[in-house]
Amino acid sequence: MLDLHCHILPSIDDGATDLPMALAMARIAAADGITTIACTPHIYPGVYENTAAGIRAAIAAFQAELDGQGIAIRLVEGADVHLDPALVDGLRSGRIPTLAGSRYLLLEPPHHVAPPRFEEAVFELMAAGYVPVITHPERLTWVESHYDLFTRLSQRGAWMQITAGALTGRFGRRVKYWGERFVAEGHAMLLATDAHHPERRPPLLAEAREAAAALVGVEEAMHLVRTRPQGVVDDLAPDSLPPPLHACGGFRAEGMQGARDNPGVLARLMRGFGMRR
Ligand SMILES: [Fe+2]
After folding, report:
1. Domain 2-275, CATH 3.20.20.140 — does that match?
2. How far is the CA of 116 from the centre of ligand 1 (A)?
3. How far is residue 105's CA from residue 243's CA, in Å, rounded to a whole number?
4. Tens digit of pLDDT per residue, the chain (277 long)?
5. Where are the domains of the chain?
6. Distance (Å) from CA 9 to ligand 1 centroid
7. 83 φ/ψ angles, rounded to the nearest 5 degrees
8. Ligand 1: distance of its center to the CA of 2 in Å?
9. What angle do the packed helices 143-155 and 118-127 form, to 10 degrees?
10. What is the Å distance from ligand 1's center to 67 Cα?
């Protein structure tokens, strides 16, 4: 599996605080079956002023540590990019890294407030040739009043990355409900850990792959953790990768198959807002 959202680099943002913690996270990820990690520290003007050059240097140093310790993880570059009017310029100039140098980038919306012109910002990135991967929409406090915005963006070609721990209940029942809904309705393109800490926010994907398989079947679950993230690392065009289930009618065939195999899933989704705390 490949984890394309992980705050594992030591002492660079609010993720791993030092090298021993970063190594502990890498060991957990390797034991979980993760072979590639995109190191994606925050780039947030005024808060985390990371640049591609600094991230690259930190990755080279950490990769040497992993290799020295015999931890079989390949690191690739990335960033957890916050909205910024200069985003397209930053990408074009190389100051802001994409995922593994590809056309794909992580785009993190503000957590508590729906930003004005968010849709326009996403379309601007797409018009410039990038594929924005919107991070953890299921965890945003404003998702329930804007779910249609995310499905609209998904239908127009933006990608949604759902947090692995959302599907396994690590973020509570409300986030689990929205995470399951994005996956079951075929709007999730990737699962990623968004790990920050070995215990509190661990880099675990396998348990979420199993949870996704119960919703949409084993094949799509593998697309979420392997096929599409590998395609991102290889910079394959989105239309050469498995499409989102909503686009191919697969949700009804495969998603409902998963739900039929596990009637509790369907019942929980049908209860909808009854799930919220
Ligand atoms: Fe993140």
Report:
1. yes
2. 21
3. 18
4. 999 999 999 999 999 999 999 999 999 999 999 999 999 999 998 899 999 999 999 999 999 999 999 999 999 999 999 999 899 999 999 999 999 999 999 999 999 999 989 999 999 999 999 999 999 999 999 999 999 999 999 999 999 999 999 999 999 999 999 999 999 999 999 999 999 999 999 999 999 999 999 999 999 999 999 999 999 999 999 999 999 998 876 444 444 444 444 545 555 555 544 443 3
5. 2-275
6. 12
7. -60, 140
8. 15
9. 20
10. 25
